[in-house]
Amino acid sequence: MMAQKSVSTTRRIKVLLAKPGLDGHDQGAKVVVRALMDAGMEVIYTGLRQTPEAVARMALDEDVDVIALSSLAGSHVPFCTKLKPLLEANHLQDKLWVIGGNLPAQDHDALRRLGFTGIFPTGSKLDGIVDYIREHVK
Amino acid sequence: MNDRAKEELKPVANESGIEVKPLYTAADVEASGGMAMVGQPGEYPFTRGIHRLMYRKQPWTMRQYAGFGNPADTNRRFKYLIANGQTGLNVAFDLPTQIGLDSDDPLAAGEIGRVGMSVDTLRDFEVAFDGIDLNKITVSLTINGAAAILIAMYLAMAEKRGYDVKQLRGTAQNDILKEFIGRGTWIFPVEPSIRLVGDTIEYCAEHAPKYSPVSVCGYHIRESGANPAQEMAYAFCIAKAYADDVIRRGLHVDEFAGRLSYNFNIFGNLFEQVAKFRAGRSLWAKIMKEQYNAEKPGSMWLRMIAAGGGGGLTFEQPEVNIVRGAYYALISALSGTQTMALCSYDEAYTIPTEYSARISLRTMQLLIEEMGLTETVDPLGGSFYVETLTNQMRQKMEEIMAEVDAQGGIVKLVSEGAIQSKVSAQAYKMQRDIESGKFRKVGVNCYRNEKEEEHPVEFHPYNEEDTRVQIAGLDKVRAERDPARVTQALARLSADAFAGRNVMPALVDAVKAYATVGEMTREMVKIFGRYQEPIRF
After folding, report:
1. Average pLDDT over residues B106-110
2. Most buried of A37, A100, A132, B30 (most Cβ within 10 A)?
3. Three-state DSSP class for B376?
């Protein structure tokens, strides 16, 4: 247990950053990818149009610490509703789930209930995202 | 020199990288190339405007982006905007329609009618445009990946309602290369996608000669991180790629170039934007005349919509975006655009409500009715600063275009993801500069309210019921149409796509048989394949 713990604290944080659903707005996602890479994290960017199944599979296959979504076209709640049971079925509930983009305040409670503890609406600072991930990765 | 004087003389550069001086004189105009490219409005090289009298004769068209839910909902919004004085329509489609999925496709779940109206068959267009006079109100379709299908649908709808398609005006966005750079509603790989754009241009040149089949968009490239000079230069590279495809088919440039149009973005430095448009008009005219041997003036015109861009608006203090929008509209008018639109103040939150769309419309109407913007052509022409900057912006754009050519051309650079990587690196730098306060944004990194409101805007509601209604409508069309005719039309589409023939006649035929957007897209995917996005940082 000790050895494993020391490995997990020294290894680079690995992030899957996914563009869920059909939304094509990727400027923000790509900016965040660069910020996380500059902060020394390893980032796997999925590109556009990922299904919940694809996100869950990549998160499992790539053994990531963080599952991050970027959504700007309004379908974040239905997408996360489908994604949650798939992540749980793959035993990924101990990973950090975060989401950013056009996320109205009225949806934040629903997103938290769906397991997305880190919520970064438009206007969030890059360093705030980096710090949050560093502090909350288990 | 004291510290204050030193501070004032700190070098300043605009976003395109051109140094800005504290004062301009006739000597600066001379040093930048003089007034040789200025000319008269309505005359080559059209720096001052493509028409002699510009807005004195006819003010710009006002065309707010609108569409949501079912075609019936959208038809009501269209009529509301027209009743409020809007003079054109700019149709927003939902994401399933934009990427060629039917409303009952599992991948479309949760997206029906969300960011635009959903369209499955010709029936939806019949409902959406019911009661709208297509001769009085020109319609712009914001559609790219599925553009060939929806252009066919629009022409078929107009024909069915008795309009002479030869006289029909209107525009489709249909700029797939920019869609690979930003916005992302691609379907097919790069090469067949360009071929489809060529098919629409070629078809319209013969069958709908007053219809504008393409609106080349610098707009979204700017939104993705390009600076204003790159925005225009990359758009010209893209337009040339489409023109080259059509010329390879044997058409003369004057047979189609007069119907090419553009969509550009407005935010940032006022003078830089105005100079961008003045420079762009003369550069495009020069390209068409000297490189393409265009003879008709219309082939050399940079016809455009100049739209106040979402990239300049802020999530913080959204009501201040109303003021930003007013300045963007002013810039647009000073720039000599043909059509104007504004992102509404709540754009960072939601698609526009009736209320916010009306504010945008009133903003543009103020310029026409109260501010004297329509009385005189190119009112900033002759300013030492604006003329110098116009020359410098033109040179900048020419340099960027030469660089693209030297690196193998725009098609290669987009296919490899090189342009995407370049503009996204710039977007990252800009975001860092905004967060550090180096690049000032009011309400974001300066003049913040002590207590920002939590729910400052009213949301356009998303109606889950729309999905059920849309799918029920689709089922009804499928049940009522002639299945043999659909099968036959789709087989013809497949054969024409495979043989390399222009697919537009087959698409028009399939649309008239009430084939669905998804069915037609699937036939073409079988032949063309699907685009694979290059991931490159």
Report:
1. 93
2. A100
3. coil
Which residues of chain A neighbour B349 with C-beta distances below 8 Å?
102, 104
Are the beta carbons of A127 and B454 separated by less than 8 Å? Answer: no
Model confidence at A5: pLDDT above 80: no
Distance CA B15, CA B8 (A): 19
| Average pLDDT of span B338-361 | 91
Q: What is the pTM of this model?
A: 0.95
Residue A10 forms contact with B (CB below 8 Å) = no
Residue B18 has pLDDT above 60, yes or no: yes
What φ, ψ does residue B427 adopt, rounded to 5°?
-65, -40
**Share of residues in chain B with pLDDT > 70 (%):** 97
Nearest Cα residue to B457 out of A105, A29, A91: A105
Contact between chains at A51 and B107 (C-beta distance less than 8 A)? yes
User: With 60 as the cut, is the pLDDT of residue A3 above it?
Assistant: no
Q: What is the pLDDT of residue B481?
A: 98
The Cα B509–Cα B522 span in angstroms is 16
Instruction: State how far the alpha carbon of B465 is from the alpha carbons of B69, B119, B458, B469, in Å.
Output: 9, 16, 20, 6
Q: Would an 8 Å CB–CB cutoff place A110 in contact with chain B?
A: no
- A26 contact B CB<8A: yes
pLDDT over 90, % of chain B: 92
Chain A, 54-73: which have a CB under 8 Å from a chain B CB?
A: 73
Classify domain A12-136 at the CATH topology level.
Answer: Rossmann fold (3.40.50)
Q: A101 in contact with B at a CB cutoff of 8 Å?
A: no
Q: For residue A4, give how far its alpha carbon lies from the nearest alpha carbon of chain B (Å).
A: 32
Residue B490, amino acid: L
Distance separating alpha carbons of residues B140 and B120, to the nearest angstrom = 18
Q: What does the pLDDT look like over B273-287, one tens digit per residue?
A: 999 999 999 999 999
pLDDT digits (tens, 9 = 90+) for B226-239: 999 999 999 999 99
Is there a contact between A123 and B223 if contact means CB atoms under 8 Å apart? no
Instruction: Pick the residue from chain A with its C-alpha nearest to B531.
Output: A48
Using CA atoms, how far apart are residues B469 and B475, in angstroms rounded to an integer?
10
- Residue from the list A37, A49, A74 with its beta carbon closest to the beta carbon of B462: A74
Cα angle B45, B49, B54 (rounded to 5 degrees) comes to 145
| A vs B: CB pairs below 8 A | 89
Q: Does A88 touch chain B if contact means CB atoms closer than 8 Å?
A: no
| Span B178-208, pLDDT tens digits | 999 999 999 999 999 999 999 999 999 999 9
Which of B225, B315, B425 lies at the smallest CB-CB distance from A123? B315
* Residue B424 touches chain A, beta carbons under 8 Å: yes
Residue B243 has pLDDT above 70, yes or no: yes
User: Could you tell me the domains of chain B?
Assistant: 18-407 (3.20.20.240)
What gap in Å lies between CA A87 and CA A106, rounded to an integer? 24
Residue with tokens 């503009």: B423
Is B67 within 8 Å of B60 (Cβ atoms)? no
Confidence of residue B99 (pLDDT cuts 50, 70, 90): very high
